[in-house]
Amino acid sequence: MNFLWDRPRIGIYGGTFAPFHNGHMALLKSFLRQCPLDAVYVMPAGIPPHKQIDFSDDPRQRLAMLKLTLRRLPEWDERLFVSTYEINKAGLSYTYRTLEYFGETLSGDITFLCGGDMFSTLGEWKRADEIFRLAKVAYAGRPGSEIDGFAERYKTEFGARLIRISAPLLDISSTEIRKTAGEGGDISGLVPPETALYIKENGLYKNV
After folding, report:
1. In this predicted structure, what is the pLDDT of residue 2?
2. Domain 9-169 grouped into CATH 3.40.50.620
3. What residues does each domain of the chain span?
4. What is the model's pTM?
5. What is the DSSP code string of 96-153?
């Protein structure tokens, strides 16, 4: 990567991605378009501390689906990368530790992309003060919506540096996708085509 700035501008989008669905994709595309970033790392969580995955989880399958899906984006060969950092490391995937690692390794300015449901709980995450110190936080929300209340709280309590982006807010649940797929239902309108095909060919979520 050839950066035009003294410090690279790094975006990080983490999540369980079980599976990566159209809501995740819409948020990622908005992040790429609206934030001036030199590189964006999409990072599947290894063992997420904030939720339990309700099936026999294989992180490598989540990773494979993500790679297949993102390769069709034009940014793939330019500034979009899939990171295996959290999957490869032992123990729980705490966000503040991930931000420490990327800040030190890449010596860059970090912007952490947070989905709306996660943004509303961000202040309760382990070492939330460190998360806001180590990175700007980008989130999607409409002006005047409930999420702005959380934004104001984070600014006051943590001195948060926040970026609100405009993105389609799609009401899609990974849990419902797994349930529907496990029952043999149609998930083509909920996930990218590559993800739907991978789930079908590998018989995922049959034990949900």
Report:
1. 46
2. yes
3. 9-169
4. 0.89
5. HHHHHHHHHHH--EEEEEE-HHHHTTGGGSTTHHHHHHHEEEEEE--TTSTHHHHHHH
